[in-house]
Amino acid sequence: MRRLLLALWISQIAQCSCPPGFELVRDGECRGKYASIEEANKDAIKVATEKCGEIKGQPIIIHNEEHQTYWMNRALDERPPNIATAFIMIGLVCNISSKRYEWADGSSVDYRPPSDEGSAMDRDCEPRCVCDLSSKGLWDCGCSPPGVVTPHSHDLFCTTQSNQFPPLSDCESINDESSDGVCYQVGAISDSWQDAQATCQQRGGNLASIHNMQENSFIRRLAVTQGAVNGVFLGGTITGEANEFGWIDGTTWDFDNFYSGFPMRGAGDCIAMDTSTTNGQWMNVDCSSKLPIACIQTTTAPSSTCITGPYDEGSIISSPGFPFSASTPCDFFLTVEEGKKVELEMLFLEANTCCDYVTIYDGFLGGNIIANVTGEVSNAKYTTTSSNSMRVSWQPNGGVNVKGMQITFRGV
Ligand SMILES: *[C@@H]1O[C@H](CO)[C@@H](O)[C@H](O)[C@H]1NC(C)=O
Ligand SMILES: *[C@@H]1O[C@H](CO)[C@@H](O)[C@H](O)[C@H]1NC(C)=O
Prior knowledge:
There is one protein chain. With 412 residues, the protein is α+β, with helices and mostly antiparallel strands. It folds into three domains: 3-13 and 165-298, Mannose-Binding Protein A, Chain A (Roll), CATH 3.10.100.10; 29-161, Mannose-Binding Protein A, subunit A (Mannose-Binding Protein A, Chain A, Roll); 317-411, Jelly Rolls. It has helices at 2-13, 44-53, 65-78, 193-202, 213-225, and strands at residues 23-26, 29-38, 57-59, 87-90, 92-95, 100-103, 130-134, 139-142, 153-161, 182-190, 206-207, 232-239, 244-247, 270-273, 282-285, 291-298, 317-318, 330-335, 342-350, 357-362, 369-373, 376-383, 389-395, 404-411. The strands form seven sheets. Strands 1-2-9-3 form a four-stranded antiparallel beta sheet, covered by helices on one side. It is globular. The chain starts with a helix and ends with a strand. The structure holds 2-acetamido-2-deoxy-beta-D-glucopyranose (NAG) (2 copies). The site of one 2-acetamido-2-deoxy-beta-D-glucopyranose (NAG) has 5 residues, from loops. The site of one 2-acetamido-2-deoxy-beta-D-glucopyranose has 4 residues, from strand 20 and strand 21. Residues 287-412 form the CUB domain. InterPro entries: C-type_lectin-like, C-type_lectin-like/link_sf, C-type_lectin_CS, CTDL_fold, CUB_dom, Snaclec, Sperma_CUB_dom_sf.
């Protein structure tokens, strides 16, 4: 039951942060092919900018050697057989007042490709110009005269930032120094506890944990003012080998406010608060109940201390600072019963493919590399060949603007 619960929960959170088909490259930037557009359209660049805007992105913008090389190679990848040179549209737009090109995001052309003598960048531009990057690395701008149309469709590439946390809007805090940096939200009815937790996660939080009566009263009052007058899901659920209740946000179980007789055997594995009475008492309920949710967000970053172990099978292990920062390296040492093998499940990974890696080793020291992983991964499994121990080495090289990883493991 517990495993099922975890699996369900995880499948909800393990969504990619980049649009489908995009690659998470560096500094949390996703790059990829988004659509096909007609370049015959003299407003091609405007259309491109609008299209990329649908995913809060921009057409290709080149500010340095890394951008130039990356996109030149993408153009090369796009080159059909028997065609010498391929072109992809870049986000240069004409500033009509200065008659100079600038980038679609308003930034100036501060980088030029090597050997671009006689480049369009040195000539006056016109509004109907459309610029391409060739697989040979040159920028080429075509400015068809009005009325002249050479229709051909063009793949549109965009860049966008991987999903960052939404601002802490609608956030209510307790006015108390002891609760500094913690805020609460009560949201709509969800289909299940797992759904509720997924929703909180998408907002950069967790289902709420409660550690004293003041927090309890606060959430109860907040719930009632939001119309949740019957009950709300809290972040308590059965966790760990001991089959006891724990908080999904990982905080200590140091307070409870159950009705007497609760938790009641068989009543369910998830916790809800009854908001219909002033005491806001708790009961354990079926996780598939339909209840409004109470989320908690910690605005202060979680600890970014590396804890190498020991870990229990089935526990969820996060890289230090997850999900707010990913810059601290950490090695995790995992063992299972002798005679069994370690099956690691990479529940979630968001790492820059340029720089951040997870290396999975058979055994603790001197073992073979089972896998060396980067980018966006969810629900991937890796198993040792014979050893009952595994080393999982999280080696970010910056870990800029990405969330890091969450893993779990078991003996098989
Ligand atoms: C166009 O260029 C002028 C002069 O360089 C600048 O002041 C202006 O902000 C630019 N216009 C736009 C729309 O970026
Ligand atoms: C993992 O792959 C990256 C990129 O290919 C490489 O730089 C790194 O050294 C690899 N790590 C190990 C331990 O092999």
